[in-house]
Amino acid sequence: MPKKNFDSKKEQKQQLGALLALCRGKRSLREIARAIEIPASNLSYIEKGINAPSPEVYEKIILELAPSDKKRQEMDVLYSCIRELPPPDVCEILVTNNGLNNSLRLLGDKHISNDMLIQINKLFASL
After folding, report:
1. Which CATH code, of 3.40.50.10260, 3.40.50.300, 1.10.260.40, 3.30.230.20, is assigned to 9-126?
2. DSSP per-residue letters across 44-70
3. Which of 21, 33, 72, 117 would staple 40 via disulfide (CB 3.0–4.6 Å)?
């Protein structure tokens, strides 16, 4: 589980790298690197928390590893804290749905409760 927001970027990169390595399981680093078309050394640096993946690489890693929803959520939180932007797939949704941007702006600085989030998820699932 990711630590609180006061963690340093270095710690967040290390946590993200550890989760990615965990999700890789017994598959070799080279196998995953080949599948996502990056050098194995780059993937190694990401797993060690030395580097953070670019949006393109993060998206490829997620597609290749197919983590559980819980692990994906943990990784997305860490990725978003490190990069200071939403995960790539969320960015794509925002870019292609201008009306959604306007809807999100209506929230302003309001906090969304867990109950509200459940209702929003149900609404989106029904679309």
Report:
1. 1.10.260.40
2. HHHHTTSSPPPHHHHHHHHHHH---HH
3. 33
